[in-house]
């Protein structure tokens, strides 16, 4: 005798649906103005049902923040996997990150504001994101050392230094400050990248 086909939604699939609706609301009206009731209403369920999949609104916020920062990680990996020299990868990667963050400020202000708050409040997902980016920096620097392009004794420490020196072009609030005051972030970016490459002991 055949068993009846189950129609219950898979929990993982339901979580994805919840996050898709939440992200759409976050991008349109902002994460602070989006309530669990708004998300539930869009999905045709009760707020209590949302809490079966996420313990709190904060957990949803973290998950959406993770989806947004994953875009930057994917961009970084795409650059890291190219056949360019390590110096070119550092240059292209830092440029791409800055331009992506600047574009988010201009085109998706609500998303920009969420990331800014997440960084200011030290959300765990932000620490995880920064650690992942620093690991990518380290891998490229090691590659440069092995190829004789860079002259550093400790690639891990050098990666952390690159992260710190790049904060003005990475932190959403600092980018917003520069743009609001009419500063030429592109010119400053080029100068900072030259400084970073020189600090890494770039040869040739």
If you had to describe this structure to a student in words, what would you say it looks like?
The protein is mostly helical. The chain folds into two domains: 9-55, Homeodomain-like (Arc Repressor Mutant, subunit A, Orthogonal Bundle); 65-199, Tetracycline Repressor, domain 2, CATH 1.10.357. Helix content is 72%, strand content 0%. It has ten helices and no strands. The longest helix is centred in the middle third of the chain and has 24 residues, at 57-80. The N and C termini lie far apart (75 Å). The relative contact order is 0.11.
Radius of gyration: 21 Å
Show unreliable segments: 1-7
| Count of domains | 2
Estimate what percentage of residues fall within beta strands: under 5%
Approximate helicity band: over 70%
Give me the CATH superfamily of the largest domain.
Tetracycline Repressor, domain 2
Report the biggest beta sheet as strand number plus sense, adding barrel if it closes: none
Q: What would the average pLDDT be, to the nearest integer?
A: 91
What's the CATH architecture name of the largest domain?
Orthogonal Bundle
Number of strands: 0
**What is the name of the CATH class of the largest domain?**
Mainly Alpha
Please, how many helices? 10
Give the CATH topology of the largest domain: Tetracycline Repressor, domain 2
- Globally, the shape reads elongated
> Terminal Cα separation, in Å?
75 Å
Give the secondary structure arrangement, pairings included.
Elements: H1 11-29, H2 36-43, H3 47-50, H4 57-80, H5 86-107, H6 109-120, H7 124-146, H8 155-165, H9 172-180, H10 185-199
